[in-house]
Structures are given as C-alpha cells and as structure tokens.
Amino acid sequence: MERSMQRWQELLLQQGGLPGYILKAKEFSRRKLVGARFYGPVSDSAQDMYGHGTHTASTAAGRVVKNASFYGLGRGTARGGVPSARIAIYTVCSPLCLDTDILAAFDDAIADGVDIISISISLGDPVDIKYDAISIAAFHAVQKGILTVQSAGNNGPIRGGISSVAPWVFSVGASTLDRAFFDRVELGNGRVVEGGAIDTFKRKRVKWPLVYGKDVSRNCTEVNSKKCAEGCLTKTLVRNKIVVCDELADSTEAILAGAAGIIKKTRSIYPPFVVPFPESRLTHRAFASILSYINSSKQAGTIPKAYISSTKTRYDHSAPRVPGFSARGPNLIIPNILKPDVTAPGTTILAAFSPAVTPSLLVDKRAVNFSILSGTSMACPHVSGAAAYVKSLRPDWSPAAVKSALMTTAWSLKKQKIKDAEFAYGAGHIDPVRATSPGLIYDTSINDYINLLCSLGYNTTTVRQITRDNKSNCPKTGNVGSKHHDLNYPTMAVKVERNASFSVKFTRRVTNVGRAKAVYRAKIVRGSGISITVRPRILRFKALNERKSFVVSVEGNIGGKKKIGASLEWRDGIHRVRSPIVVYDDTAF
Fold first, then answer.
1. CA nearest 485: which of 397, 551, 426?
2. Can you give the pLDDT at residue 589?
3. This prediction's pTM
4. Which residues contact 20 (CB under 8 A, 6 or more apart)?
5. What is the spatial order of strands in the sheet that 576-584 belongs to?
6. What is the C-alpha to C-alpha distance for residues 518 and 506, in angstroms, rounded to an integer?
7. In degrees rounded to 5, what are phi and psi of residue 519?
8. What is the pLDDT of residues 12-51, one digit of tens each?
9. Residue 522: enclosing H or E segment and its boundaries?
10. CA–CA dist 286, 73 (Å, integer)
11. Rounded to 5, what percent of the chain is helix, strand, coil?
12. How far apart are CA 260 and CA 274, in angstroms?
C-alpha cells in the first residue's frame, strides 16, 4: 500500500468511517450491499461469476477486514476507500457488455439516487461521443449531479488508445504499488533468473527436468509446438517435467499433460497474474538464457533441470509508475482534452473475490475470498472511493468540482521519467487527503459541456440525442472546431501542426474554496521550446466561492519533439493548485 493511500485510509478509520456516499438509501441500513440488478439476454442472476465486480466494489467501499491475504501473500488489513459507504451493484456484462444494458443500468442507478458511479469497463478503441454508450450515459448522470469514474482501458502502451475520452467522465489510468511480486527460476547450473507470476503452491525444493515445447510434441508443427499450443503436448514426454513455451500459452495444456510446472516467454513480467500451478513468466532475455541452458546441457549429455520458487514480495522504490498495459492519450476524439485524467493503484491489488469462480479462471479448483488482480479496472475504484471521500466532506460540490480537487492536488510524476509522460498519467497520481482542501477548483457547468459538443461540430439534433432534452441548442453558424480548448478543465492541451509556429490561449476560471481571503500567485514550469504567460499572474480573493478568470498564453514551435509538457501552479503559501500543459503534434501517436 502506497504511503499516501495508506494515510488516507488511516484518516478514514480515525474519523470512524464516513456516511454512505456511493448510494443514498431511502432508509438507513447497516448492510453493505443495498441493492443488486442484472441485465442482458443471458443473465438470470446478479451473482458475480467472474470475480471482477466483487474485487472492484470492495476496493471502492469494502469494509475493514483484518488478516486478509491471498494464501499468505499481501497479508494485512484490507479496507476499501470508504469503508462505511453503501453499495448498489449493476451487473451489465454477462459476459458481453451491451450498450443497451449499460444505458439501462445507468438509468436505474440515476433513479436510485447514487452519488458516484464507478464503471470498470472499457469498450475498446475510442469512438465518437455520439456512439459511446458510457459517455452518453455519464452525461445523463452528470446532469443529475452524479460523477462517473471510468477505467482508462488496458490497451497500452500504444498512444491514442484510451477510450474514456469525455470531459465529464473521470478517466483513470493504472499505476504501480510499492509492493512488488516476483518469483525465481533456479537452473541446474546454479544460475537464477527472476520471473513473474502469483504462484502460492507449496512444494519441496526439487529441481525437475526441463523440456522445450518443440521436443515434447508429436502432432504439431514446430511453430505450434514451441508455443505449447492446444493439443501439442505429449503426456508421456511432459509428465513430471517443467515445460518451456515460447509464448504466453494457456497453462491448461501443461496441467492436463501432468507437467510439474511451466515457463513462458513474455515481453514484460509486470504485472504478474494468479496462476493455477507452478509457473514463471520470463522476459525475452531471461527466456533465451533458459533455452541456451537446455541446449548446452544436451551437448554435454546431461539433463537440464530447474526449480520454480513460489511468489515472494519486496519493496519497490520506483513506485508509483505507469505499467505498459495502461491506456495512453492523446485523446483522438477531443484532441484538446488531456486523457487520462489521473492514475491510481491498479497493479497487483488485493481485494475481495467471488468464491463462485476460480482465481486464475483456468483449470483451478480453488475458491477464495480475496485475490490479486491488475488492470485499470482496479485503479478506477480507488478513485471512486477517493471521490466519495471528498464528496462526504464537501457534499455541496459538483461532480466537476470533486474531479478538479483530485486532479489539481495529484502528485506530479515527471521526476519518474515515465514513458509518454502526461499521456500516461494525466494530472498525476491521486492524493485523496490533499484533495479535501484543494484551495481552488475548476468548476464546469452542463452548459459548458454542451458548448464543447457544439464546438466539436455537432448540430442541435445530435447534441439533444446525447443530452436527452429539448433545450440544448448549438449556433447555426460558426463555433465549429474552435474554442474546445477553452472548456474550464483542470488540464490544458493543444494539438498543433508539425514543425510550425503556434500561438494558443486557454481561458480558465477558478473558484476559491480555501481561505476566505487569499492571494494566489502563478508559477510556470516551462517546457523547452515554448513560451508560457499568465494574465493576471496574481489572483486576489476576498470571500469563499468567489470566482476569478485568467488566460494562459502558449506559443512557440515544438519542432521534432512531438510533445512538450509544462505546468501552471497557483500558490497561496498553503495550497498548490497544479495544472499540466501539453502541446503535441500528429507524430505523438
């Protein structure tokens, strides 16, 4: 558990928990789960048959459970972001996540009176807002004062793959914990290589014979044999041996063949996943050393052997970092809105799990109450819990205000030198404690969002299909493709032409929620190759909820750099209100 997240949860316990802000029940109930609905043509129950929903719900608002672990791994006290909040469940994937079911679930949640909607679902590639069921449904929610928090998606590290693109949705990327899981493969020649898998099976320290997939197959091509593809492994040649496979093949084949374990090749061993029997996943370089050992043993007339250790943990000093799977910007649908918005813990998260499904989803007879999962799905409920925490202390704040507080107080991850920088982590890594007192907030109204849709070229008919009202209107002429960088958003981004000089102005307004009388001064962290000015540079407030506007001017030429990141900070001696500024061109994705 990272220190800032741990401090947040310690404060929750000191305060005796918080009122239920995931759902307002009409009558107070001590039960955690106050309702469950299910959707879809093949659904006949809201029971979690995948474990995913149980895991994410408990991360957002699970009760305090002492001595929780996954077979001893990660042992400690488990608790959700807001332990005393109540939860309503809406099961929409069974297993297909249909747009009609998502829209119906949102309608029900809105009617039920929820405060926060946490949706750990990403529908693949980015699509136009008017075709995006989650964006449309989330707009209906924000009209009722409900914030929607959504996972960014797991199709990283390719840039431009993020599918959660709407500015009224809180889009969450994943980051790493400071607790790393790993295993080791010890070879017969004494060499040890480090791998990744969450393997908790107890076994004797015995080195088993190593066999390569292509050498233990009688029925497949060499390519498929190396991959240990379905139907390729010969039981008599694999039984009681560790089989080595070229790719991340399904372990089922090796298990059914009676193997003692499996070693697989992968691009990255992080994050590790729960496996159904002794297994290790190795990087290409480490995997090559295994094959080299097998070949040299054959030449020497000896039997290659190996032992796969069970999973261990250690402190990871590099955390928080953004793992490769977390979806990246830039935002292909609304180029001047930076996405994702923030990151939160999303790798190797220990949380509750449905005992109705096995933890590895393969040939696995185990049933557990806690398991370890990774993905932006796991990051999303961390932010949902944090948003509920902020909302409980600031019940009058709008969804945009809660979102702004978590974005402008997030940790800057620039010093970690994360690949893709702001396209990977947005405003940074959330700090829920600081977010309760952000000093200034960037609030956004429904009309602001409607004006944004009009600026994207939508006509009145299309906008009304999204807003589901008969009041929204777009100008008949002009405003098309202009000014959507002026949405009152906590971050600033602009797409410019390659190798061309540019000049852009961002108009923003902030609301004072800190001290009644306060003076904020602007500090600019410049990116090389661009000039940034702020007018005015000093904001003087005389009362709470007073609003002030300012203009940020950015100009220059980014040349061959593809992307330049900078930031604006407003400081009053107590608060630091930070907004990333990103300039990029077509070569950035």
1. 551
2. 67
3. 0.91
4. 84, 85, 86
5. 492-495, 576-584, 563-571, 518-525, 538-541
6. 23
7. -125, 120
8. 333 333 333 333 333 333 578 888 898 887 777 888 888 9
9. strand 518-525
10. 25
11. 25, 30, 45
12. 17
